[in-house]
């Protein structure tokens, strides 16, 4: 059953007292989404799509630099195609939606609604690639997918969500693996520098690896409540998917071989991560580079309306050279409502102008990450000043997010300490040698999983065996 949303327009319940309703209050008050008619689906509202389109723009630019081209593939395809890769189907089986009938007619070959597209891409590659000199092929699509979830939460875990999924084909194992790591680094840079998220990077354990992958490289962020969120992954697939559809091509010696593939993706889960990392008890807080409006200008109206707002506005525009995404909110709502509304929506800079400001040739400027207001002389206003204010905002929210993560990060040296710290909501670092059975046991007892593995320069005794290792595991609960 859906929880009642807070109907009082400007009230955001406190994160400290009610984190679940704090999150949903922000989503609804910032007008990001409404619940869809089917469980786990959403009506994504214009403000969200503006954020998502900026994310698409940034990532597409980076992908294109590395030779990736855009495609669109079918939403529905035969289950028999998915069944060809056994490890892959086992990983998705509980979440797959089957189409068994058309009208009253039962299908002989059931169809699936796309849970991911590895098999579709493999089928496409088989039909279009015949020889080694066509490679590498690098493709990406921005689409919706469907995976049925029992426990849903807007943006963080949905049955239907939007994402990008990239797929490549290479002549050698080395090339495919190298490209999957390249994408891994592109995600890391984007998440760190554009979304300003505290990121931990590494490789998934065998238990947590993407179904059918040989290696899964992951980017995870640590949210305000200490839980981890997987926000982007890149997979080296080897040539098992090619084998499953008998996708062979000719090499230089005219002999046939199975080429090597990678896949990689991120999704609208990023928006949930932004909310749960940067927001405060006043509402949404957005990094400036993906904020639909970087500046909102709000006129302070008076009864006489005795100043030329348009001329004043044109002066402001000329000063900042229209280099920024600007919204002028001249609507009939009260001044107090407009200020609160844009604060809730997380706009980085709000500018107030009225008759007093007009007569004094200044304006009032408020940066979202600060509590104080600034009075700016109009003659001092310029694009560089605004750019610096946006940088200040981004630096502040990034520092807050990083400090939150560091306050929850802890190194431990025993399994007993591991379990104790997980239970109180910490993110646990420990030297670790892979042990799938113990990993399952810890998950059952604490709800935590290994978010990723990486190697330290120095070695130490692992917490689960007598051996010395450089490998570190990060355990945390997650969405």
Automatic annotation (TrEMBL):
<keyword id="KW-0436">Ligase</keyword>
<dbReference type="InterPro" id="IPR002316">
    <property type="entry name" value="Pro-tRNA-ligase_IIa"/>
</dbReference>
<dbReference type="InterPro" id="IPR036621">
    <property type="entry name" value="Anticodon-bd_dom_sf"/>
</dbReference>
<keyword id="KW-0547">Nucleotide-binding</keyword>
<keyword id="KW-0067">ATP-binding</keyword>
<dbReference type="GO" id="GO:0017101">
    <property type="term" value="C:aminoacyl-tRNA synthetase multienzyme complex"/>
</dbReference>
<dbReference type="GO" id="GO:0004827">
    <property type="term" value="F:proline-tRNA ligase activity"/>
</dbReference>
<keyword id="KW-0030">Aminoacyl-tRNA synthetase</keyword>
<comment type="function">
    <text>Catalyzes the attachment of proline to tRNA(Pro) in a two-step reaction: proline is first activated by ATP to form Pro-AMP and then transferred to the acceptor end of tRNA(Pro).</text>
</comment>
<dbReference type="InterPro" id="IPR045864">
    <property type="entry name" value="aa-tRNA-synth_II/BPL/LPL"/>
</dbReference>
<dbReference type="Pfam" id="PF00587">
    <property type="entry name" value="tRNA-synt_2b"/>
</dbReference>
<dbReference type="Pfam" id="PF09180">
    <property type="entry name" value="ProRS-C_1"/>
</dbReference>
<dbReference type="InterPro" id="IPR017449">
    <property type="entry name" value="Pro-tRNA_synth_II"/>
</dbReference>
<dbReference type="InterPro" id="IPR004154">
    <property type="entry name" value="Anticodon-bd"/>
</dbReference>
<dbReference type="GO" id="GO:0005524">
    <property type="term" value="F:ATP binding"/>
</dbReference>
<dbReference type="InterPro" id="IPR002314">
    <property type="entry name" value="aa-tRNA-synt_IIb"/>
</dbReference>
<comment type="subunit">
    <text>Homodimer.</text>
</comment>
<dbReference type="Pfam" id="PF03129">
    <property type="entry name" value="HGTP_anticodon"/>
</dbReference>
<dbReference type="GO" id="GO:0006433">
    <property type="term" value="P:prolyl-tRNA aminoacylation"/>
</dbReference>
<dbReference type="InterPro" id="IPR016061">
    <property type="entry name" value="Pro-tRNA_ligase_II_C"/>
</dbReference>
<dbReference type="InterPro" id="IPR004499">
    <property type="entry name" value="Pro-tRNA-ligase_IIa_arc-type"/>
</dbReference>
<feature type="domain" description="Aminoacyl-transfer RNA synthetases class-II family profile">
    <location>
        <begin position="40"/>
        <end position="287"/>
    </location>
</feature>
<protein>
    <recommendedName>
        <fullName>Proline--tRNA ligase</fullName>
        <ecNumber>6.1.1.15</ecNumber>
    </recommendedName>
</protein>
<keyword id="KW-0963">Cytoplasm</keyword>
<dbReference type="InterPro" id="IPR006195">
    <property type="entry name" value="aa-tRNA-synth_II"/>
</dbReference>
<comment type="similarity">
    <text>Belongs to the class-II aminoacyl-tRNA synthetase family. ProS type 3 subfamily.</text>
</comment>
<keyword id="KW-0648">Protein biosynthesis</keyword>
<dbReference type="GO" id="GO:0005737">
    <property type="term" value="C:cytoplasm"/>
</dbReference>
């Amino acid at each position: 059953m859906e929880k009642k949303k807070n109907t009082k327009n400007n009230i955001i319940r406190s994160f400290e007292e009610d984190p679940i309703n704090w999150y949903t209050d922000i989503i609804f008050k910032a007008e990001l989404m409404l619940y869809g008619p089917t469980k786990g689906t959403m009506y994504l509202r214009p403000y969200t799509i503006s954020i998502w389109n900026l994310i698409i723009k940034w990532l597409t630019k980076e992908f294109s630099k590395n030779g990736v081209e855009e495609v669109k593939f079918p939403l529905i395809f035969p289950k028999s195609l998915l069944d060809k890769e056994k490890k892959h189907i086992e990983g998705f089986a509980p979440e797959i939606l089957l189409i068994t009938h058309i009208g009253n007619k039962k299908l002989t070959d059931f169809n699936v609604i796309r849970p991911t597209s590895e098999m579709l891409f493999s089928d496409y590659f088989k039909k279009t690639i015949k020889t080694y000199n066509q490679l590498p092929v690098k493709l990406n699509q921005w689409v919706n997918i469907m995976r049925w979830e029992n426990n849903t939460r807007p943006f963080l875990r949905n049955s239907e969500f939007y994402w990008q999924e990239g797929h490549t084909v290479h002549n050698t194992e080395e090339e495919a693996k190298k490209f999957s790591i390249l994408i891994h680094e592109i995600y890391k840079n984007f998440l760190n520098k554009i979304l300003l998220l505290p990121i931990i990077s590494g490789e998934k354990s065998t238990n947590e690896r993407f179904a059918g992958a040989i290696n899964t490289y992951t980017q995870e962020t640590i949210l305000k409540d200490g839980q981890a969120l997987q926000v982007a992954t890149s997979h080296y697939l080897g040539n098992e998917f090619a084998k499953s559809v008998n996708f062979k091509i000719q090499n230089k010696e005219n002999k046939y071989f199975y080429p090597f593939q990678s896949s990689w993706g991120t999704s609208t889960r990023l928006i949930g991560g932004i909310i749960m990392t940067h927001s405060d008890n006043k509402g949404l807080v957005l990094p400036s580079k993906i904020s639909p409006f970087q500046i909102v200008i709000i006129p302070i109206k008076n009864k006489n309306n005795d100043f030329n707002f348009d001329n004043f506005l044109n002066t402001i525009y000329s000063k900042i050279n229209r280099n920024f995404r600007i919204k002028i909110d001249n609507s009939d709502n009260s001044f107090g409502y407009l200020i609160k509304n844009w604060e809730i929506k997380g706009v980085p800079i709000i500018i107030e102008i009225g008759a007093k400001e007009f007569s004094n040739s200044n304006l009032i400027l408020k940066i979202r990450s600060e509590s104080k207001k600034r009075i700016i002389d109009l003659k001092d206003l310029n694009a560089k000043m605004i750019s610096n204010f946006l940088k200040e905002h981004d630096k502040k929210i990034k520092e807050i997010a990083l400090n939150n993560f560091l306050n929850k990060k802890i190194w431990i040296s025993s399994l007993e300490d591991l379990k104790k710290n997980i239970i109180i909501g910490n993110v646990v670092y420990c030297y670790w040698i892979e042990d799938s059975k113990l990993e399952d046991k810890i998950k059952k007892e604490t709800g935590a999983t290994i978010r990723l593995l990486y190697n330290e320069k120095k070695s130490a005794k692992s917490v689960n065996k007598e051996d010395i290792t450089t490998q570190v595991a990060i355990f945390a609960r997650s969405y």
